[in-house]
């Protein structure tokens, strides 16, 4: 049996260059779906793998395993799509928009969006759940105010990712800390100074933009929107119950898929009871909502979304992306890039840069946040220990690089999900992910400052061993991860 050879750097650069060229040209020049570039990319990577000695069956199984690992994310995506459909037909989303337009000032809408989404994600521990509940409501309110949807999406994403990476309930926090051999509370404390500084900067930026924002819609337009919502739907303060119930159950650490599915079924009940919708139509909204025609083009566009059918392109994107990332790992491309990055690490500043970049590449090439959060500590823990660096530096930067960049890649699970749920393309909202950019910039600046002022831990080859021996919990977690 022939043993597969590792790829060369030239082969790796050629393959990745071809894929990135296709992805860019398909989306910006040819106006084709980026999943086609991923689909073609499968065969490019499979061709390289077979040339290096891998069998087709092994490569196919690797792609299938990558897709299987992403099934929990796909199930949540199905549930969120169904929930949005029933919540619109049931009057829940229209009600949230209606009351939001009445209660929130347009001048302070953007910072309010940031704060509400932050609290929701912090309480529930899930950026997807926060975006699928508070996020879609704020997007609707923002459109009612005439805000740029990409700008509003930036505020939503800044909020949900801030809350997600600081919540002890978050899967990303658990992954980044456990894979780095760091206790969860220590991991969160290590992130707090930079995260809070970046959050304040982001809050000020959105406040300034909001205060200087000139509403794209007149008061008459907003009044027309609220009137139509009130006429077409039976609105009641009871519409707040399903979102509060879903967020409360998520905050109590109930599994996301059944909880969000329950929220979708509550929407069916609301459609039948409050909106006098027949059972067949209400159940059908789980898959695709019936056309809502109010006679007002903007209102119709705002309400005609949701249902499982609406997120099927996102599902295809995630499936192709997960398979593509798994093939890159199988062929050895990810390991090769990591090895070249590790040779660059000689101090804390470079370790920070390398960790952030490796985590971003996990999203870019692995197409999933969990790939980034698992692979980065595995690839860099030995290098970190040789430098005598505190493992909290590794866990913190893994979280920053993995979580905060996950929504920046159009073909990643997070980028696809957020674009599909919020109705804004990844490249459109990318410039407004100010929390992510601020956090990454501060992390790089702090590590650079510490390095030039010789505030890093001395490079002691026995440091990692001493750290493990003195910390039984760290020793146990590291052994389990190995």
Describe the structure.
- The chain has 482 residues and is mostly helical.
- The chain folds into 2 domains: 71-306, no CATH class; 312-481, no CATH class.
- The chain is built from 25 helices and no strands.
- It has helices spanning 9-29, 34-52, 56-69, 71-89, 92-103, 109-124, 127-144, 149-166, 171-180, 184-211, 219-232, 241-251, 256-273, 279-284, 297-303, 312-331, 333-342, 348-366, 369-386, 391-403, 413-422, 426-429, 434-452, 463-470, 472-481.
- The two termini are 28 Å apart.
Strand content: under 5%
Fraction of residues in helix: over 70%
Mean pLDDT: 85
The total of beta strands comes to: 0
The count of helical stretches stands at 25
Low-pLDDT residue intervals, each spanning 5 or more residues: 456-482
User: What shape does the CA trace take?
Assistant: globular
Order of helices and strands: HHHHHHHHHHHHHHHHHHHHHHHHH
- Biggest pleated-sheet summary: none
Quaternary assembly: single chain
Radius of gyration: 23 Å
Q: Label the structural class.
A: mainly alpha
Task: Quote the distance from N terminus to C terminus.
Answer: 28 Å
Number of domains: 2
